[in-house]
Amino acid sequence: MSTPYARPVARVFTAAQTQEGAGFHVNRPFPTRMMMDFDPFLLLDEMGPMQVAPGDAKGAPDHPHRGFETVTYLLAGEMEHRDSQGHAGKLTPGDVQWMTAGAGVIHSEMPSQAFQQRGGVMHGFQLWVNLPRTDKMMTPRYQELPAAGIPSATSEDGKVSVRVIAGEALGTRAAIETRTPILYQHFTLQPQGALDHSVPADFNVFAYVIDGEGQFGADATPAKTHQMVVFGEAGEAGERVTVRNDSDKPLSFLLIGGKPLGEPVARYGPFVMNTESEIRQAILDFQAGRMGRIPASGTTD
Ligand code: MN
């Protein structure tokens, strides 16, 4: 299956375990000391998977963002979000929210009241996608896709299936519009399934294993649950990504890639700009209330 043009794997490492928001557990492949960012991506968090007792669910209360996008993909559980523009909504399993913070939003990301009361399994992902200099101060926008609205496809042999959140896979195009060229795809390979996937030669590409184990890249490098697989660098490493599942269980992973921005990154918590003075301005704008406030409570149901 492998040809000289398939990308090799450059690195495999296990996500760090940490806490976020009000204290929920995340597996974080980056940023960590292992890897600060992965241009054009700034962060990937896997929330859970964890069993949450009734009344114990934690979230991320009101906080700002400026200069990038947050992409939330929920696999289990139920989340609610509210923001300073009066936008509110709910995420259920399989749903995607692609939030372009641009010039700034303040939002909360919390378990829904119903989930809070009954508990259950919480599992999901948040990816931070950097915005180019020209888009950092754009008007905030949301793209929200219910699970049923996410294009999906299955290979002819039935062994490879994909949910196409961004980009194109198995001949199926995403419904999301991205500011810069991005791919974000959730693949499942059945035992003996093999993927041979075209990716643009100038993309940085990685896989993150959600569940199972597989053989990645031209050298069939093994990786398993909670591991990040970095494919060879864009530009020099070819335009195909290959993955096999030689195990006897399904393999589920995210395949994420994008054209690097190649711009300076000035980063301070929830603000990601190009320069330190732009960061200082973001802090001033936030403190002065120029990113707005979340309207006082009410139900989002
Ligand atoms: Mn947030």
Can you tag this structure with a few keywords?
single chain, 301 residues, Jelly Rolls, globular, binds manganese (II) ion
Word description of this protein:
There is one protein chain. The protein is mainly β. It has a single domain (9-258), classed as Jelly Rolls (Sandwich). Helices cover 6% and strands 50% of the residues. The protein contains two helices and 26 strands. The strands form six sheets. A seven-stranded antiparallel sheet has the order 1-22-19-24-17-14-13, with no helix packed on it. The model has no long low-confidence stretch (mean pLDDT 92). It binds manganese (II) ion. The site of manganese (II) ion has 6 residues, from strand 5 and strand 10. Keywords: Iron, Metal-binding. Belongs to the pirin family. Residues 184-292 form the Pirin C-terminal domain. This is Pirin. Fe cation binds at residues 63, 65, 107, 109.
Briefly say what this structure is.
The chain has 301 residues and is mainly beta. It contains 2 helices and 26 strands.
Helices and strands, with pairings:
Blueprint: E1 9-14, E2 16-20, E3 24-30, E4 41-52, E5 60-65, E6 68-76, E7 79-83, E8 88-91, E9 96-100, E10 105-111, H1 113-118, E11 120-130, E12 141-145, E13 152-154, E14 160-166, E15 168-169, E16 172-173, E17 182-189, E18 194-198, E19 204-211, E20 213-216, E21 221-224, E22 227-231, E23 240-244, E24 251-258, E25 266-268, E26 271-273, H2 276-287
Antiparallel strand pairs: 1-22, 2-3, 3-4, 4-11, 5-10, 6-9, 6-11, 7-8, 7-10, 9-12, 13-14, 14-17, 15-16, 17-24, 18-23, 19-22, 19-24, 20-21, 20-23, 25-26
Bound molecules: manganese (II) ion (MN).
The site of manganese (II) ion has 6 residues, from β5 and β10.
